[in-house]
Design goal:
The structure is a homodimer. By secondary structure, the first copy, chain A, is an alpha/beta fold. Chain A has helices at about 5-10, 15-30, 50-55, 70-80, 95-110, 125-135, 155-160, 180-195, 255-265, 270-280, 285-310, 330-340, 375-395, and strands at about 30-35, 90-95, 115-120, 135-140, 165-170, 200, 230-235, 245-250, 315, 320-325, 350, 355, 370. Chain A is about 40% helix and about 15% strand. The first copy, chain A, has a 7-stranded mixed sheet with strand order 2-8-7-6-5-3-4, with helices on both faces. Chain A has 2 domains: about 5-45 and about 285-395, Alpha-Beta Complex (Aspartate Aminotransferase, domain 1), CATH 3.90.1150; about 50-280, Aspartate Aminotransferase, domain 2 (3-Layer(aba) Sandwich).
Chain lengths: ~400, ~400
């Protein structure tokens, strides 16, 4: 048998993935599982998506332009310019999800062996995209105690080497729910300017910012036009994850032109998804308000409920739909597996994401789990009940 | 400005792409261009695609399984098994087009610096996928004189080095239209068995085989289960290029498991595309017959018409919807550009793909162009007229 590639061997299998067989086994036993482990919301997709697709009768479902339909890019540029980002359709490449936008960015801007600095904990798939592109992830740790704020600029600068090419943030943050402040964005700007680095900002959760804390896009930063790259997606904004439509946005012409070479090789992003995505730009405010209030209520409920469980500490996140909870346990990987394999409460259990998968530094996050509040409140309630009961009897309780 | 990656610089810009600005300029001048340069057919998409999408009313457009919907994989396995390929749903990964299937294959099976042998001329984007994965393309030349048949096994073996990991073929072939025979497939099998290589077969044109010449899938080969990987797509089969649905099919469990790690990072293939693709499996024979006869008539027309132009030689291809024509010209890149920038016949011109882009060996293909017969016969007729007139006055005529 011919060998598998080294990259293939190195591709991380995240802690959540290791739980999947245990979840399947639990389901086979008839167990009800509350999934707080995933980023797939139960929120209904913006209705204009299927309306546009239903109204579409193409004789031939053709390739689109490799950068995406021009009509869509024009509308999307106008959408960004509601916030005065000064984006042209030429600054935008429509991609197959935010995932592809990030892959194209890494491939276009980083040589194999070069380094990308990412505040940890971070979205676990960043590891996979980095391995695929041969890029080395250099974590800089943010802490539960400090609310998962951006690490001090001096801590970030300590991580910069001659091989550093860029910094990647997710804002609002997955998995912490942290929302970077104006000052933090300015700190990042100063660093990328000083060292001439790329600043890549994954802003797919930008619609979900709570408590009137303002969101600051990387596109607001002045004087670093050539440095900043925005990763966007319709997945969370309109609860349309399955469309696989994202965008790479940058005013750096060389980056867009280089990414275009990768884009042309794969021909085009999905045509039906683009029809839906373009139409959804006209989604009325009422949809976002409804969704926002739903998430807000869920967040308030779950954070308070988790903090009421003895020994549990949970921050009140300002963005996205995740929070990191600190639990009185020995090891989150063992605990999350035990929840599926050994535990049940009235034939129910809960699936959580072990936080170890979000840290690149070994040993960190062992007492933390990521909680995604993507279920309706009744289910969140039952999930919290399960967790409370589980922590009473978990053998590895501290 | 931070630097662009070396890969980004190396990503080939194919000769067709270099023609695009000239085509745009011609269009601005009001010129009618007959596009024989592209693989986007004008054939109507199998009607079950949009029918299924119109009948679909998802409340939430969710991520699918990273390997694609199980229902689709089951149906697709059954489809392959009409030819007794002995494929299970676990052997199949649904991908975002054949492009992604090939990218995942290269990433999973090849280390950077390792080599893939490809008979040239070959589909130009293979170069791009190879550069992205850091894989070195080693061409083995097939010739116009020999009908673009598979090079002799001894010629292929000469190209094998300790770094060789696999052989990639496209069957029926893009750009030559060549259809590999039973004997040629056996020769390839013997080589991959002898040297323990992967044999990757891109069979996206399998529905288009003419003159009762049988098609032989890589999946028919016995005793090399761990070596063979099939790249498939719905793009050409159902004329549904824009759906971006393909498949990676292999009985090698390690390859599928490794590819799954890359697939999980990008979450899922497009959901709407999968709905359409699954439904299209039930497309009645009448659709394929109609399309087949349309292509057959086009092929017969264009090959005969091209051969009637003085100095032009064109093979009668047995598959796909391309043929390579040899023209009495100095340089196909210059000629194809001249057609767009300088030539017009009754305000019309024709766009062709310079064959240089399909060869990895420098200097080859200079007198050849790829002709895609993806337009209706009236347009093919006008395109041939343009070419005939152009060759009368082209300054670089030999």
């Amino acid at each position: 048998m011919p060998p598998i590639s080294e990259k293939g061997k190195q591709m991380p299998s995240s802690p959540i993935r290791k739980l999947v067989p245990f979840a399947e086994e639990a389901r086979r036993k008839g167990r009800i599982i509350y999934h707080l482990n995933i980023g797939q919301p139960d929120i209904h997709t913006a209705p204009l998506a299927m309306k546009a697709v239903h109204a579409s009768h193409p004789k031939v479902i053709e390739y689109s332009h490799s950068a995406g339909n021009e009509s869509y890019r024009k509308k999307l540029a106008a959408w960004y310019n509601r916030w005065n980002y000064n984006i042209t359709p030429e600054n935008i490449m429509i991609t197959t999800g935010g995932s592809e936008a990030l892959t194209f960015t890494l491939m276009s801007c980083f040589n194999p062996g070069e380094e990308i600095i990412i505040p940890e904990p971070f979205y676990a798939n960043y590891n996979s995209f980095a391995v695929a592109a041969g890029v080395k992830v250099v974590p800089v740790t943010s802490s539960f105690e400090n609310n998962f704020a951006l690490p001090a600029p001096s801590d970030i600068e300590k991580k910069i080497s001659p091989k550093t090419r860029g910094i990647l943030i997710s804002n609002p943050n997955n998995p912490t729910g942290y929302l970077y402040s104006f000052e933090e964005m300015q700190q990042l700007k100063a660093i990328v300017k000083k060292y001439d680095l790329y600043l890549i900002s994954d802003e797919v959760y930008r619609e979900f910012c709570y408590d009137a804390v303002p969101f600051h896009s990387v596109m607001e930063l002045k004087g670093v036009d050539e440095n900043v790259i925005l990763i966007d997606s319709v997945s969370k904004r309109y609860s349309a994850c399955g469309l696989r439509i994202g965008a790479l946005v940058t005013r750096n012409r060389m980056v867009i032109e280089t990414a275009m070479k990768f884009a042309m090789a794969r021909l085009s992003p999905p045509s039906l998804g683009q029809i839906a995505a373009e139409a959804m730009i006209d989604t009325p405010e009422s949809y976002f308000k409804e969704v926002y209030h739903e998430y807000l209520e869920r967040r308030n409920y779950i954070v308070n409920a988790l903090n009421e469980i003895p020994g549990v500490k949970c921050l009140m996140p300002k963005g996205a739909f995740y929070t990191i909870a600190r639990l009185p346990i020995d090891d989150c990987d063992a605990f999350c597996q035990w929840l599926l394999s050994d535990f049940e409460y009235h034939n129910q259990t809960v699936m959580l994401a072990p936080a170890t998968g979000f840290y690149a530094t070994p040993g960190l996050g062992k007492e933390e789990v990521r909680v995604a509040y993507v279920l309706k409140k009744e289910d969140l309630k039952k999930a919290v009940e399960c967790l409370r009961e589980a922590l009473k009897i978990y053998p590895g309780r501290k």
